[in-house]
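Entry 14. Ran structure prediction on the chain below.
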Amino acid sequence: MAGYAIDIGDVRQAAQTIKGQVLRTPLMPSPRLSQLTGAQVFVKLENMQPTGSFKERGAVVKLESLTPDERRRGVIAMSAGNHAQAVAYHAKRLGIPATIVMPEGTPLVKAENTRSHGAKVILFGETLYESAQRARELVVEEGLVLVHPYDDPKVMAGQGTIGLEMLEEVPDLDQIVVPIGGGGLISGIAVAAKAVKPAIEIVGVEAALYPSFWNAVRGTDLPIGGATLAEGIAVKTVGERPLPVVRDLVPSIILVEEALIERAVNDYATLQRTMAEGAGAAGLAAMLTEPERFRGRKVGLVLCGGNIDARLLASVMVRELERDDRIASFRITSNDRPGLLGTLASRLGALGANILEVTHGRLFLDVPAKGVSIDVTIETRGRMHTSEIFEALAQDGLAPKRIDARGLSETAY
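Output, structure tokens:
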């Protein structure tokens, strides 16, 4: 693999460097995800690292490579999340001053978590690109050492240790599915895994809104940008050093849509009983996007991070219940008569529905003066059960109208 920024020797050396400093995370078999996908799935739980992501590996290898003078001067990194926390955490542990430049819109909790690890946090610019520009200026102005999140051979080699560990534990893996941001993770894993087992297939995954490597490898010009749940891999510019590795060693890149990223986050929480951020769940989203590519094969998923906001996770899980029709909302318009609400509640209870929310309205202009509208949100066992409930209410003469994300449905249910 001559000509790349790293080789298998660099990854093996990185493995020695991080030993005792970075957690060797488990590669767990997942019967539930295997049943879901039709493949034999193993999950590399990088969300178990102290800062919640794989970024610690590359950060430690880079920090340990510094000269005494560079350690004294300190390091600087640009990041809005996982890389920031990894650099800050291990720089403090190693006694190296750290400065992190983050976009001004970075959530307060992420900035505070980074500060809590002892780093100096500078909020600058609207985007990570502007933060990176400021970080490079400070490299010159203050003599700091840049710890790039992905375009650095030491960082790439550190991330590649994941591939070594996976094949040491399950040597007969057919595929490793890896989320792609700037390319440091997948390039490191590809170099390591292909050196150990040349026949293994490395499958890359990008959010459909950020097809940066897809464009770079295929020579296309798909639009890049937008709000994605997988912000950890929402990178507009690919790494120069990872690019040739991906071009040569990663034959397939799968673009995943937001709905399947959400579903994958939910599946990790409900089936694997573990937390995955959007980027961390992208590999599973790829398996849901192209199931035939993986069915019947032994697949390693890199759950690269689990730093997801609790409120966002709750929202994702509720949205999945709605997609599966396990939560449904409907409106009933009727004459306003005593006992109507009680009768409806009793009927829903008899049908096995759990009432989550009720809104009782009399003042809407589209409701007769002597009428009433009742909006009800219920929890059911699933799509078939929901359909049975709506049919029963229709037969009762209540004419329920479904309320979905777009508002009131034009059809009965």
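The chain is about 45% helix and 20% strand. Will compare against last week's run tomorrow.
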